[in-house]
Specification:
The complex is a heterodimer of chains A (about 300) and B (about 90). Chain A has about 300 residues and is an alpha+beta fold. Chain A has one domain: Jelly Rolls (Sandwich), CATH 2.60.120.620. Chain A is built from 9 helices and 10 strands. In chain A, the strands form 2 sheets. Chain A has a 6-stranded antiparallel sheet with strand order 1-8-4-10-3-2. Chain A has a 3-stranded antiparallel sheet with strand order 7-5-9, with no helix packed on it. The longest helix of chain A is centred in the last third of the chain and has 17 residues. Chain A is globular. Chain B is mainly beta and about 90 residues long. In chain B, strand 1 and strand 2 form a beta hairpin. Chain B is elongated and about 55 Å long. Chain B has one domain. The termini of chain B are close together. In chain B, about 20% of the residues are buried. The chains are: A alpha+beta (about 300), B mainly beta (about 90). At the A-B interface, strand 6 and helix 8 of A face strand 1 and strand 2 of B.
C-alpha cells in the first residue's frame, strides 16, 4: 500500500519545489546498492575515470530508453526496484507525477575528494547553479528524485539548492553567474535519504572536501496524466475562505495557506509578489480549482471590469 | 606596477544601492583568491551602499525594463544587478 503525500507536504512542495525523506531507505538496501556498483575502500580507487567506467560496465543499473514506464524500468528484486517500491517513495511519486510516470533519464553522480584533482593537476571547482534542463514554461512539471546511498556530511559538498526558485523560468546555466544566493542550502543527510525536486529548482553540486567519494543517484520522471489532486483521490481538499489582510489579529493558527505563501531571503521585494502569484496559480493547477485564491493576490488583479 | 581588476557583483532586494544584498559573486583578477559557486552563505556586505563605503566603484547596473505585455507575471532571473570593481596594484 503506497503512502500518498499529505496536503501539507504537497503545499510544501508547491512553495519550496522540494521534499526530503531523511534516512528513508534501509541500510540493507543501501549496502546492496553500494555492493552492486562496486563501491570499495577509497584506498583502492586510483583513478576517477576508471572507477566510473567500471561502475558503468559492471553494475546492474540498466540502460533505460527515455520514455520507459517507471514500473518496467528496473530489474525485479534489484536495489533500485526496492527503492522505487518503498511505500513512501512510491506514494510521493504517485502524488506528484502519477502512477503511470515514465523515466526521462537517470544518472549516478560521483563527486571525488581533493586528492584526485591534485594528482591530475585539475582545478577542483563546484558545479555552477543551473536549472534542468532547458527553458521550460509548461504548467506540467517533472520531478527529479535523488537517492543518497551513504551519509553525506557538510564537507562532502552535497547538492546545493535554492528553495522557492522552481517556478522562475530561466535558461539552464543562465543563472551560473549567481555564485551565492541568500538562503542557499546544501544537502547534509543520512544514508538512504531521498530528495525530490521540481524540475525547475535551481541547484548545483558542491565540492567534496572530505576523504570519501560522494554518490548521488538521480532519476527524472515525467507524468503521463494531469497532475490534479493525485495525492487526494477522494477530493477532500477544500480551499480556505478569505481572511483579513494586513490589519489582522495576531496569533492566528497556521494553515496550509501559510505554507504556500512562505517567502525566501533571496526574493526581491517586487518579484516576491509575483512568486506568490505563480505559487497560487500552481496550486490552482494541483487542486484543479481554477478560482482558488490566497491573500487576494489573484482576485485583486482578476477584477477587470472593462 | 601591474594592475589587476577585482569584480564584485551584487544582486539587491530592490533597485537602489541602499537595498539588502540577496545574491553575490566575486571574481579576483589578482589571483589571490579563487571564488566559486556556493563558497559563502553570508553576503560580503549587507547592502550595495556598504560596498561603496568600502571602496568598490560601481561601473554597471541593470536597467528597469517594463514587463512584456502578456508576460507581466512571468518570473525569471534576479533583477537588480550591480557590478563593482577595485583596481589593485602589485607584483602579480
Amino acid at each position: 500500500m503506497v503512502q500518498l503525500l499529505s496536503t501539507e507536504q504537497m503545499a510544501e512542495f508547491a512553495n519550496s519545489g522540494c521534499l526530503f525523506f531523511d534516512g528513508l531507505i534501509d541500510n540493507e538496501t543501501n549496502k546492496e546498492f553500494l555492493n552492486d556498483i562496486g563501491h570499495t575502500d577509497i584506498e583502492n580507487v586510483d583513478n576517477m575515470q576508471k572507477y566510473f567506467q567500471n561502475i558503468k560496465a559492471s553494475s546492474s543499473i540498466p540502460r533505460i530508453p527515455a520514455g520507459t514506464p517507471l514500473k518496467n524500468a528496473y530489474q525485479h528484486k534489484s536495489p533500485l526496484e526496492k527503492i522505487f517500491q518503498n511505500e513512501v517513495v512510491a506514494g510521493a511519486i504517485n502524488s506528484l507525477v502519477g502512477s503511470e510516470s515514465v523515466v526521462d533519464h537517470q544518472f549516478l553522480h560521483l563527486t571525488f575528494p581533493t586528492k584526485y584533482f591534485k594528482k591530475t593537476n585539475q582545478r577542483q571547482m563546484s558545479q555552477v547553479n543551473h536549472q534542468d534542463s532547458t527553458i521550460d514554461p509548461r504548467i506540467t512539471f517533472d520531478i527529479q528524485l535523488f537517492y543518497f546511498p551513504t551519509d553525506v556530511t557538510k564537507e562532502m559538498g552535497g547538492t546545493r539548492y535554492h528553495p522557492g526558485t522552481h517556478l522562475r523560468i530561466v535558461n539552464e546555466m543562465g543563472i551560473a553567474k549567481y555564485q551565492n544566493i541568500k538562503g542557499q542550502k546544501n544537502i547534509v543527510c543520512k544514508a538512504g535519504t531521498i530528495g525530490i525536486f521540481h524540475n525547475g529548482l535551481w541547484h548545483g553540486a558542491g565540492v567534496n572536501f572530505s576523504d570519501e567519494i560522494r554518490y548521488m543517484f538521480k532519476v527524472r520522471l515525467q507524468p503521463t496524466e494531469k497532475q490534479e489532486l493525485l495525492w487526494d483521490p477522494e477530493k477532500k481538499y477544500k480551499p480556505l475562505p478569505n481572511k483579513a489582510l494586513y490589519w489582522t489579529d495576531e496569533n492566528q493558527e497556521k494553515t496550509v495557506n501559510d505554507i504556500l505563501m512562505k517567502s525566501y531571503p533571496w526574493q526581491e521585494a517586487d518579484t516576491n509578489r509575483l512568486d506568490k502569484i505563480n505559487t497560487i496559480k500552481f496550486w490552482r493547477m494541483l487542486t484543479g480549482n481554477k478560482n482558488l485564491d490566497i491573500d487576494y493576490w489573484l482576485t485583486r488583479i482578476e477584477n477587470e471590469l472593462y | 606596477m601591474p594592475k589587476r581588476q577585482k569584480v564584485l557583483v551584487l544582486y539587491l532586494k530592490f533597485p537602489s544601492l541602499e537595498a539588502e544584498v540577496i545574491s553575490w559573486a566575486t571574481f579576483d583578477g589578482t589571483g589571490q583568491k579563487l571564488h566559486m559557486t556556493g563558497d559563502s552563505d553570508e553576503p560580503p556586505y549587507p547592502t550595495g551602499l556598504d560596498a561603496l563605503l568600502d571602496g568598490w566603484r560601481l561601473f554597471q547596473s541593470s536597467q528597469a525594463i517594463p514587463e512584456h505585455p502578456g508576460e507581466e507575471f512571468r518570473t525569471s532571473y534576479l533583477k537588480h544587478e550591480f557590478f563593482f570593481e577595485k583596481i589593485e596594484e602589485g607584483d602579480f
